[in-house]
Amino acid sequence: MVIVQICVGSSCFLRGAPMIIDKLLELVACHEISNHLTLKGSFCMEQCSKGGVSLRIGDDLLTGVKCEDLPELFEAKILPMVRR
Ligand code: FES
Fold this sequence. Notes:
The protein is of the alpha+beta class and 84 residues long. 40% of the residues lie in helices and 27% in strands.
């Protein structure tokens, strides 16, 4: 099971965390991997100064994520982890 945590602290929330969550849900449904991936909200990951939204995918912390980054991030990072 791959766990993706999305920061929903106030800075990330204002920088688009709700749109990131919507897009991730859409990608998970599109790829039919809901049985292999869990999305969770997270308190501030203390990366507010990095811009964009902070995510943790497994053990990897990503910062400055924007909605338009998600399709590539999904293909390059999340799907390979799910398929392992
Ligand atoms: S609110 Fe997301 S890193 Fe601080």
